[in-house]
Design a protein that fits this description.
- Helices cover 31% and strands 18% of the residues.
- By secondary structure, it is an alpha/beta fold.
- It contains nine helices and nine strands.
- A six-stranded parallel beta sheet has the order 3-2-1-7-8-9, sandwiched between helices. A three-stranded antiparallel beta sheet has the order 5-4-6.
- The protein starts with 6 loop residues before the first strand and ends in an 8-residue tail after the last helix.
- It binds adenosine-5-diphosphoribose.
- Adenosine-5-diphosphoribose binds next to loops.
Length: 241
């Protein structure tokens, strides 16, 4: 192989599981306890904003708990980004900030960020570490609207799709980590790049789309991600460059 393939890494909730954050669709996942229709749609927010705010307030408080920290998988991806000589983009579906805290910089949150809030009237976003109430006003600009979590709900458009599409179009290696492959458009990335780019899945168990990957490694992210990153940096992973 040559040494500078362009890489796109996609992460999902599985990478943060060993940091103490629940996934969505595992047996002990968030959607086993709460109906997504009640907390993660624009209709739910219109119907019962207090309930939706309470759900995200609890999740925000959890990621700010000093016990929750980046794990070896987050750290390995940040280290890979620093040392990789070619193009690198980390696309995450996660709304936690563990990739940033691990040191990742070339990072796009396609489902938004829990530590940001967005005005429902003017659309301005701001950092948000305090609980949001139904009446929390937009302080920075219009002062009229209410704030909502700056996250993407079911039925809304994911963020940053243009730069993500451009990176997918030119990547030689696509690596999906800790995602069940059940939510589009992220679930469709592997089919989009397949044939052009080498595709690798790193997940606890085979995902819904596991058959679409050229290479799969199954196990806990804290073990298989650092091991894969080390092989990549040693030039031992082929790509389609
Ligand atoms: N290491 C690696 N993978 C793991 C681990 C672990 N320690 N623990 C769980 N997993 C895997 C599971 O086997 C599963 O395939 O992580 C995956 C998590 O899948 P989901 O819960 O569906 O999470 P994700 O794919 O990120 O969900 C996508 O759905 O509800 C929405 O907006 C939410 O961004 C989220 C989107």
């Amino acid at each position: 192989m040559t040494t500078r393939p362009a890489i796109v890494v996609l992460t999902g909730a599985g990478i943060s599981r060993e940091s103490g954050l629940a996934t969505f669709r595992d047996a002990d996942g968030i959607w086993a306890r709460v109906r997504l229709e009640d907390v993660a749609t624009p209709e739910a927010f219109a119907r019962d904003p207090a309930r939706v705010q309470a759900f995200y307030n609890a999740r925000r408080a959890q990621i700010m708990d000093p016990q929750v920290a980046p794990n070896a998988a987050h750290l390995a991806l940040a280290d890979l980004e620093r040392r990789w000589p070619g193009d690198f983009l980390l696309v995450t579906q996660n709304i936690d900030d563990l990739h940033e805290r691990a040191g990742s910089r070339r990072l796009l949150h396609m489902h938004g960020e829990l530590l940001r809030a967005r005005c429902t009237i003017c659309g301005a976003t701001q950092r948000c570490i305090a609980p949001l109430e139904v009446t929390t006003a937009c302080a920075d600009c219009c002062r009229a609207g209410g704030l909502r979590p700056d996250v993407v709900w079911f039925g809304e458009m994911p963020l940053h799709m243009e730069p993500i599409g451009a990176a997918l179009a030119r990547c030689d290696l696509f690596v999906a980590i800790g995602t069940s492959g059940s939510v589009y458009p992220a679930a469709g990335f592997v089919a989009e790049v397949r044939g052009r780019a080498r595709t690798v899945e790193l997940n606890l168990e085979p995902s819904d789309g596991a058959a679409l990957f050229d290479e799969t490694h199954h196990g806990p992210a804290t073990q298989i991600v650092p091991a894969f990153a080390a092989r990549l940096l040693a030039g031992l992973v082929p790509s389609n460059e």
